[in-house]
Amino acid sequence: MNKIWLQEFYTFCRTELGETSSRIMSDLLNFESDLQTIQIVKNYAEMSQSDGAMAYSERRKYISKVGYLYPERYDMLNQANDLKQI
Q1: Is the separation of the CB atoms in 37 and 63 below 8 Å?
Q2: Is the peptide bond before 71 cis (omega within 30 degrees of 0)?
Q3: Residue 85: burial class (beta carbons within 10 Å; 0-12, 13-18, 19+)
Q4: How far, in Å, are 6, 14, 30, 53, 63 from residue 1 at the CA level?
Q5: Among candidates 71, 68, 75, which has minimal Cα distance to 36?
Q6: Whole-number Cα distances in Å, 5 to 8, 25, 65, 72, 74
Q7: Using one digit for the tens of pLDDT, what is the confidence trace for 20-69?
Q8: Is the pTM of this model over 0.85?
């Protein structure tokens, strides 16, 4: 749910707002998306330690394609299996 909201609101801010508002909102949404991505990866890493490896495709369902980590760090984070790798 948050993934869809973030992506749609990000698109709205980039296309419908003025230059200054768009830049500020985009920065905030990128930061929020990165926090959510790290939290999702952390939660899956903790779950995989107790329940066996979780499928990477499961993580991809919840990680948005907005943020400073996307696309360069997206695949690296998605493959992290413990907190040290994150």
Answers
A1: yes
A2: yes
A3: exposed
A4: 9, 20, 16, 24, 10
A5: 68
A6: 5, 14, 12, 22, 19
A7: 998 999 999 989 888 888 888 788 777 765 554 556 667 777 777 788 87
A8: no
